[in-house]
Amino acid sequence: MSAVLAVAWQRLLGAAWGGRTATLCRGLRTGPQRLQDLAEATAAKEAENQSTTDLSPLILQRNSMRWDSKIYEEIPIAHIKATYNNTHIQVVSFDNRPFARTSCGTEGFQNAKKGTAIAAQTAAMAAAVKARGKGVLHVRVMVKGLGPGRKAAIKGLTMGGLEVISITDNTPVPHNGCRPRKARRM
C-alpha cells in the first residue's frame, strides 16, 4: 500500500510541476485521504486495463467452430418470409447465389390453403431437397414475418435433411411509423 501511495504522490507532484500548482495545493489541503483515494483509483484503473488487455486476443481470435470445414459466415442461408397468405423459402449461399426457391403456391396449394402451417412445411421440405441436391448440408435460418408458417417452415427444413445452425428473426417492427388501417368490424 505504501508503494501505491508513493506512486500517487509522485504523480501528483509531477502534475504540479507541469504547470498545475493548483492541483498540488488542493492535494495538500485535503490531506492523506485524497492521496489514498487517488491511489485506489489508479490501482483499479491499472487492473482494469490489464484485464482488458488479457482478453483482447481472445476477442479478436476467430471462432474455431466449423461445419463441413466452413466457418459460420460461409454457411448458406435459408430465408423464410412468412406472410398471412403465403410462405416463401429461399436457400442462398453466403454470397447470395441461389440454391433453391419455393413457396406454398408453387407446391400446389391454392387460395386460403397457402396460408397454413402444413403448406409452409411442405414448401420447406421441397426447398431442402433441392438444396441437398446441390450439396448444402447446413443452413442458417433468417425468418421474416408473422405468418402461421414460421415454425412449420423451420421444421420442414430439418425434415428435408438440412441441419439448422442458427435461427435469426428479421421481422420488421415499426417504431410508430405509418398509421394503421382502421379496425375491422365483424
Which descriptors apply to this entry?
five-stranded mixed β-sheet, 5 helices, 5 strands
What does this structure look like?
The protein is elongated, with a radius of gyration of 30 Å. About 25% of the residues are buried. It is α/β, with parallel strands linked by helices. Strand 1 and strand 2 form a beta hairpin. It has helices at about 1-15, 20-30, 30-60, 115-135, 150-160; strands at about 75-80, 85-90, 100-105, 140-145, 165-170. Helix content is about 45%, strand content about 15%. The chain contains five helices and five strands; from the N terminus they run H-H-H-E-E-E-H-E-H-E.
| Coarse morphology | elongated
Helical fraction equals: 40-55%
Low-confidence stretches: 19-24
Rg of Cα set = 30 Å
Overall number of strands: 5
The overall pLDDT, averaged over residues, is: 82
**Beta-sheet strand percentage?**
15-25%
Which structural class is indicated by helix and strand composition? Answer: alpha/beta
Largest sheet: 5 strands, mixed
- CA distance, first residue to last residue: 78 Å
**H-E string:** HHHEEEHEHE
- Describe the strand arrangement of the main beta sheet, using strand numbers: 3-2-1-4-5
Number of helices: 5
Summarize the model shown.
The chain has 186 residues and is an alpha/beta fold. The protein has helices at 2-17, 21-30, 32-60, 117-133, 150-159; strands at residues 77-82, 87-92, 98-103, 138-144, 163-169.
Topology:
Layout lengths: L1 H16 L3 H10 L1 H29 L16 E6 L4 E6 L5 E6 L13 H17 L4 E7 L5 H10 L3 E7 L17
Parallel strand pairs: 1-4, 4-5
Antiparallel strand pairs: 1-2, 2-3
